[in-house]
UniProtKB/TrEMBL annotation:
Pfam short name (any one): HTH_5
Keyword annotations from UniProtKB, A to Z: DNA-binding, Transcription, Transcription regulation
Domain spans labelled HTH arsR-type: 4-91
Annotated protein name in UniProt: Winged helix-turn-helix domain-containing protein
Species in which this protein is naturally found: Geoanaerobacter pelophilus
Amino acid sequence: MEFDKSRNFDSEAEIFKVLGHPIRLKIIAGLCAKECNVKHIWECLGLPQATVSQHLALMKNKGIIEGKRDGVEVHYTVVHPLAKKLIEILG
């Protein structure tokens, strides 16, 4: 393999940077298994709702997850293929 200095990995590096936090990795792993709302996530992880919401907002802003409104609830799912692949690799 040769090095390709013209290849740009900026977007991939940004995704890895965002996912480089243990709580966000736990959230992504859970969302890869099942779409769910913020209440379910914070109850499963035993974290404050505000903490989970901040992590979800960051990942949503970076295009890693998306939320679908269902009445008063928002159900989150992973939409970025690199995030899905990373969780698959981590097992």
